[in-house]
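$ ./design --mode recover --in tokens.txt
reading tokens...
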């Protein structure tokens, strides 16, 4: 999977999750950029792969209906093949993983009195062009 394909998948998941969302709600982009992945054996060193991110802020949610919105989003996310990951999760967020393709999703702001939730989808680490670049020969690395 390329970086562009990973980004498109996060956008597609977002569209599916927000379909038929109860009203009123205002949707705004929260984060649309990716981030770098790190080497397993050198966690401060980039390995050349990236994670693509699509996050939206949902505001204007009536506080007394927040549970309805959270349930709608949870149901939609799970219908796309994601499973809830409750390991160590805070009560203010819900985290999901799709075991088939390793994409992740989240709902943050649960229980907030501000009438705002943030929903996000995150790709696994991918090579920008879809494949690991060839490694230089040992004689070329000097």
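writing sequence...
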């Amino acid at each position: 999977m390329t970086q562009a394909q990973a980004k498109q998948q996060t956008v597609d998941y977002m569209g599916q999750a927000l379909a038929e969302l109860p009203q009123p709600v205002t949707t705004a982009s929260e984060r649309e950029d990716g981030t770098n992945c790190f080497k397993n054996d050198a966690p401060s060193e980039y390995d050349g792969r990236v994670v693509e991110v699509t996050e939206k802020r949902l505001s204007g949610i009536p506080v007394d209906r927040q549970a309805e919105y959270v349930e709608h989003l949870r149901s939609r996310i799970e219908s796309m093949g994601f499973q809830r990951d409750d390991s160590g999760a805070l009560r203010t967020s819900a985290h999901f993983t799709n075991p088939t393709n390793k994409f992740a999703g989240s709902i943050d702001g649960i229980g907030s009195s501000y009438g705002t939730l943030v929903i996000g989808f995150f790709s696994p680490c991918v090579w920008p062009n879809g494949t690991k670049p060839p490694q230089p020969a040992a004689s070329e690395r000097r």
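exit 0
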